[in-house]
Design a protein that fits this description.
With 453 residues, the protein is mostly helical. It folds into three domains: 2-139, MgtE N-terminal domain-like (MgtE N-terminal fold); 150-254, CBS-domain (Roll); 282-451, SLC41 divalent cation transporters, integral membrane domain (Tetracycline Repressor, domain 2). It is 68% helix and 6% strand. The chain has 22 helices and six strands. It has helices at residues 2-24, 28-35, 39-47, 51-58, 63-72, 75-83, 87-95, 99-105, 111-120, 123-133, 140-143, 157-167, 192-197, 204-207, 221-231, 251-269, 282-308, 311-316, 319-347, 356-386, 389-419, 428-451, and strands spanning 150-151, 176-180, 186-191, 215-216, 235-239, 245-250. The strands form two sheets. The chain has a three-stranded mixed sheet. The chain has a three-stranded mixed sheet with strand order 4-5-6. Strand 5 and strand 6 (245-250) form a beta hairpin. Helix 19 (319-347) runs antiparallel to helix 20. The longest helix is centred in the last third of the chain and has 31 residues, at 356-386. The two termini are 56 Å apart.
Length: 453
């Protein structure tokens, strides 16, 4: 926690230094500040600035790190920064990146700039880029880097070491070499620690290890992320249907997948379609947020009409107006807890069709206990406030029934959305709130009308 707080303080200090240089000058001081920062830290500064301050700071970023910064910022900010660059600057930024990182940028570039980047690459790099772009970006093939180091099983470790010295730099996050046959079929891996500590006279076949996890090119990025987390991987191979090595996936790419998935789920739960620039225009923000607000408005109108059905009951017993928001609010909170757990389980692949009935029963049990416990407590409070025992009983029953409704909806909404091929998180929070509001009002006011009036 202390380290995290220290990093945040350093980041704030860097941002303040940049702002001070913007306001007081000299502006060249910004270039000196940015030169000592990691691309991720520069990205954080850029995201925290409105466009009128962001653009002059972006102009001070070194061209050789501009590409890495573009990969670190959010998609909305990336599009804004790219709009400020000309074709030559974009080509220079892309040339400094690995092939798989160049592919990540292509979705935000114009056809003209893409053509310039391809023209600037040599034949081998163009072929590698084509290989990555031939797969969807949310698959192992779209994530992979085709720059791999391979060796044969029948050579000695001394030959491998000599080859590595002649080769020079190794690709980033290389912790093992891939052992392949003459047809490039993957046979195993040669960990670098074993390579450095074993006798040079040994052959690769004697110390190579089996592959912990490998992926076909069309394996989903979510499955890749789960495997990296489960097996604590740093790199993993990607193979074709015949077992031939195509490339490798590294942990930095998987971390990006996990972060993007987490961000997407947070946004989807409240009905936001995409991450927006914090300082984007009013119209852009409205366009991103309007749809689920409109849905929420419709559900709120439905809830108001439910209340309208019981206007006469509320007029006869004013205490109902004071108590009914409690029933709806607790139900909404309980439903959101359930829905968050289910969305997470679906994302991790933990929820299967054969276990859905058991899960329903479990959540119903939890809601029944919570409903009787907290409903009983609120019933007691109602009795103390209004000296009306039947009202206290109705309060307990309504709370219990609304929590049961919340549990069923909390499991059912994301599960049914996934079965229909939709994102289970998208708008789930809005829908559960609508159900528990309308349902809670109807249950509480309906019970009150039947038994109190």
């Amino acid at each position: 926690m202390a380290t995290k707080a220290r990093k945040k303080k350093i980041q704030l200090d860097n941002t303040r230094l940049v702002l001070a240089a913007l306001e007081e000058g000299p502006i060249d001081r910004i270039r000196e500040i940015l030169a000592d920062l990691h691309p991720a830290d520069i990205a954080t500064i850029l995201e925290s600035l409105p466009p009128e301050q962001r653009h002059p700071v972006w102009a001070m970023v070194k061209p050789e790190v501009a590409g890495e910064v573009l990969l670190e910022v959010s998609e909305a900010v990336r599009q804004d920064l790219i709009h400020e660059m000309d074709g030559a600057e974009l080509v220079l930024a892309a040339r400094a990146l690995d092939i798989d990182d160049i592919a990540d940028l292509f979705a935000d570039l114009s056809d003209e700039v893409i053509a310039e980047i391809l023209f600037a690459l040599n034949k081998q790099d163009r072929q590698r880029l084509d290989a990555v772009l031939s797969y969807p970006e949310d698959t192992a093939g779209g994530l992979m880097n085709v720059d791999t180091v391979t060796v044969r099983e029948n050579i000695t470790l001394e030959v491998v070491l000599r080859y590595l010295r002649q080769r020079g730099d190794l690709p980033e996050h290389t912790n093992s070499l891939f052992v392949v046959d003459r047809s490039d079929r993957l046979l195993g891996i040669l960990p670098l620690d074993k390579l450095l500590t074993a006798s040079p006279s040994l052959r690769v076949a004697h110390i190579m290890e089996r592959v912990k996890a490998s992926f076909t090119a069309l394996t989903s990025d979510r499955e890749v992320a789960e495997a990296f987390e489960r097996y604590n991987l740093i790199t993993a191979p990607v193979v074709d249907e015949n077992g031939r090595l195509l490339g490798r996936i590294t942990v930095d790419d998987v971390v990006d997948v996990i972060r993007e998935e987490a961000d997407r789920e947070i946004l989807n739960l409240v009905g936001l379609r995409e991450e927006e620039d914090l300082f984007s225009s009013v119209w852009q923000s409205v366009r991103n947020r309007w749809m689920w607000l409109a849905i929420n408005l419709v559900t709120a109108l439905i809830a108001s009409r439910v209340i309208g059905l019981f206007e006469s009951s509320i007029e006869k017993l004013v205490a109902l107006a004071a108590l009914m928001p409690i029933v709806a609010g607790i139900g909404g909170n309980s439903g959101n807890q359930t829905i968050t757990m289910i969305v997470r389980a679906l994302a991790l692949g933990q929820l299967k069709a054969e276990s859905i009935r058991q899960l329903f029963l479990k959540e119903i049990g939890v809601s029944l206990i919570n409903g009787l416990m907290w409903g009983g407590l609120l019933g007691g409070v109602s009795w103390l406030l209004y000296q009306n025992l039947p009202l206290a009983v109705v309060m307990t029953a309504a709370m219990t029934l609304n929590l049961l409704l919340a549990s069923v909806a909390g499991v059912g909404i994301p599960y049914l959305r996934q079965k229909l091929g939709r994102d289970p998180a998208l708008g789930s929070s809005v829908m559960i709130t609508a159900i528990t509001d309308s349902g809670g009002f109807f249950i509480f006011l309906g019970l009150a009308t039947l038994f109190l009036l």
